[in-house]
Amino acid sequence: MARRKGCGCASALLAVVLAAAAVVGYKYALPWWRRQPPKPSGGELQVHVLDVGQGDSILIISPAGKTMLIDAGDFGKDKVVRDALARYNVSHLDYFVATHAHADHIGGAAEVLKSVKTDNVIDNGVAPPEYTDTQAKATKAKVAKGGNAKGGKGAQPKSPPAPKLPRGAQLPTVKAYTDYLDAVKQSGAQHTTAEPGAKIDLGGGAFLTVLAPVAPPFTEDQMRGGGNAPNANSVVLRLQYGDFSMLFAGDAESVSEDRIMRSGAELQSKVLKVAHHGSKYATTEEFLKRVKPEAAIISDGEYNRYGHPAADVLSRLKAADARVFRTDLQGEITITTKGNEFSLREIKPAREAASDVYAGREGTKDDSERAGFIAYGDFGPPPKPKPEKKSGGK
Length: 394
Ligand SMILES: [Zn+2]
Hints:
The chain is of the alpha/beta class. It has helices spanning about 10-25, 30-35, 80-85, 105, 110-115, 130-145, 170-185, 230, 255-260, 285-290, 310-320, 325-330; strands at about 45-50, 60, 65-70, 90-100, 115-125, 190-195, 200-205, 205-210, 235-240, 245-250, 270-275, 295-300, 325, 335, 345-350. The chain has a domain at about 45-130 and about 170-355: Metallo-beta-lactamase, Chain A, CATH 3.60.15. Helix content is about 30%, strand content about 20%. The strands form two sheets. The chain has an eight-stranded mixed β-sheet, with helices on one face. Helix 3 runs parallel beside helix 5 (about 110-115) and helix 5 runs parallel beside helix 7. Bound molecules: zinc ion (ZN). Zinc ion (ZN) binds near residues 56, 102, 105 and 376.
C-alpha cells in the first residue's frame, strides 16, 4: 500500500467520508463477500490432501485456476508435494500458507518455494521458541566473546531444557524455520501474517476466510493442560464454494478451537481437515457441534510416536456422524466439487483402507508442552522383535 502525501484537507475529507459511511450503514462499503457469498461459477474446485506421512500438505485448485498450498510436509516430503503439483499441472502458486513453524508443516517448504513461483506467503507470524532461543544464545555468545568475559557466572534464567541432540546438529524446528524464512525472502513473494476475518478470493466463486490465529499468541505457559503453543497458534482457514465448505484446522489445539468458537465466525463446514493429525488435545465435542462436518480428513503418518490419530478423537468424529478419511490408510484424499449439493461421493481416497479408519493409534510419546518434543516426522516402521502385533497398514 502506497502511502500518499497530501494536504491536510484531503485526509480530513477522507475521515469525514469514512465516519459518514460508518454511521449511515457501513454495510454498503463492504466488499461482496461480506454482503453475500459469491455464487459458484459451475467450474470444478479441487482439494488434494497429499500423502506426506506424518505432516500436512494440502493443495487447492479453484474453478478459476487459482492455486493455494497449505503446508509442505516435513523435510524430504517436498518431492511428494512437487510431484503432486506436476500431476495437477500446477506450475505457479498464488498462495502458500504455512500454518505454523513446525517441521512437519514447513520442512518441505523451502524446496517447494524454490521450485514453484509463488506470489503470496501467509503465516502466523510467530517464530518457534526453539528458534528464538537459538537466536538469543547466538547473541549472548557474541557479546561474551566480544566483551571482557567476567568469569562464567552469567547466571541467566534458564529456558526450558533443550532436547538432546548430536553435537553440532541443528534442531529440526530451527532448521526448518531458518530455511523457510530464507526461501520466502528469495522467492520474492509477498509475505503477510494471517488476520482473522481476512478473505482470500480464489476466483470462480471460491474464497477462504481466515479464522485463526486469534491474537494474542498462546504462550508455552498457557499450554499446561496439553498441546503446545506453536500448534495452538496455527493458521486456520475455512474454504467456501457454493454448497461446499471445508475447514482447515492446521495443528490447532482445543484452546485455539475455543477462541475460534468465541470469535463468532461461521464454522459450519461439510468437510473438516482434522486438527493436529487427530491429536487428543484438539477436535473437542463442542467444536464438532459447531463445525458439523459430514466428513473428516486426517493427515497423519503410518508410523508416528504420538498416537495420531487418537482413539478419543475418532470416537468423537464417529459420534458426530463424520465419515473419516485418513492419509495413512488411504493415501492422498481428493475432493472435486462443483459447489452444488455436497455429497460424500465427491471425496475420493487413493486407495481403500486395509484396516478400520476409526481405530486409533497408541502414543509412545506425549505430543504436548508437558513432555516436550523434538520434532514430528515419520519414524519408520517399529522395531521387529514383536511379531505379536497385527498391523493393519501396508
Ligand atoms: Zn503437525
